[in-house]
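Would you mind writing out the residues of a protein together with its fold in token form for me to study?
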Amino acid sequence: VGAVVHANGKFLLIRRANEPGKGLWSIPGGLVEVGEKIRDAVKREVEEETGIRVEVGRLIDVIENIVFDDDGRVKFHYILIDFEAKPISEKLEVKPSPEVLEARWFSPEEMRNLSITQTAKALFRKMGIEV
């Protein structure tokens, strides 16, 4: 699951500490735990990775992402369920976890200068935001 978290014209991005996409910027998110509801997983993952508590909004997209190794074998296979989200608090101070290299707020213009994962770029395009 993932969240496009936005407030005051800016978007919350994390720089990935692990593969796939290690070192690239993306939206906060992660795996759903056994027995966990999807929207609860979104809230938990955003707060774990960034310290920001969110209210989960509409479903944006469901994306299938298959990553192959150099020999053509499947290395990763994800079904990404991405939602819009907004911070619950007006306090927008980010506190990145060890799961991410960094987490910051960016305007769409600032995002154009970042190395962003292809899936995140596609998600922003679907929302009408060019990055």
